[in-house]
Amino acid sequence: ACLASLSAQTLTEFELILVDDGSPDGCGAICDDYAARDSRVRVIHQENQGQAAARNHAFSIAKGEWVCFVDSDDAVHPQMLERLGQAAAESGAAMSMCRMLEAPEMPEDFSAPVEVSWELLSMEEAPLTALFDAGDYPGWVACAKLIRRELVRSHPFCPGRVYEDNEAVCHWLLPAKTIAILPEKLYFYRTNP
């Protein structure tokens, strides 16, 4: 479901790096199958090292100016990359972010077309504190964002750290200076008990 949602993006010019982090359940073969069918897909097979190391490895071979992280059990709206890119371009922000829909199953209408709208949030103490205090989960995770490459390069993920993305994102927010925030839920975060 995750790979199908990425393959269906309305923005078609992107590079997709899949990391098989020592998966024992056949994920590596699924990744290789997608790479054989889509020239935008590259696959990394590695011994299990955890999510931080997997993300860092993928980033080390990525060529794009912008980076987006998607967890393998999640899915994205068909317009997510296009809308995040449009908001970043129009606003001049170094990061754009959409909302997340958290549920065990994706609703049937999740892929309905959306118009782009965004608000610009300045990365100063009060807005940062409000973002944190609001418990706005997408604000503190690597997913549901389009991030300028230099922000990720400046502070990679810390292997072995629990909630490694929270720590890295905190280091990206301040130098980003501004974030374009889209009100639409374009990232499906699959909850699994």
Kindly list the characteristics that best describe this protein.
24% strand; 35% helix; alpha/beta; 193 residues
Task: Report on the architecture of this protein.
The chain has 193 residues and is of the alpha/beta class. It has seven helices and eight strands. The strands form two sheets. Strands 3, 4, 5, 6, 7 and 8 form a six-stranded mixed beta sheet that branches. The chain has a two-stranded parallel ribbon with strand order 1-2. Strand 1, helix 2 and strand 2 (41-46) form a beta-alpha-beta unit. The model has no long low-confidence stretch (mean pLDDT 93).
Quote the distance from N terminus to C terminus.
Answer: 18 Å
Instruction: State which percent range the strand residues make up.
Output: 15-25%
> Uncertain regions: pLDDT < 50 for 5+ in a row?
none
Proportion of helical residues? 25-40%
Multimeric status of the protein: single chain
The coarse silhouette is globular
Q: What's the total count of β strands?
A: 8
Provide the structure class. Answer: alpha/beta
Rg computed from alpha carbons, rounded to a whole number of angstroms: 16 Å
Mean pLDDT: 93
Largest sheet: 6 strands, mixed
What secondary-structure arrangement, pairings included, does this model have?
Layout (H helix, E strand, L loop, with lengths): L1 H6 L8 E6 L5 H11 L3 E6 L4 H11 L4 E2 L7 E2 L3 H12 L3 E9 L15 E4 L2 H9 L11 E4 H6 L9 H13 L1 E13 L3
Parallel strand pairs: 1-2, 5-8
Antiparallel strand pairs: 3-7, 4-8, 5-7, 6-8
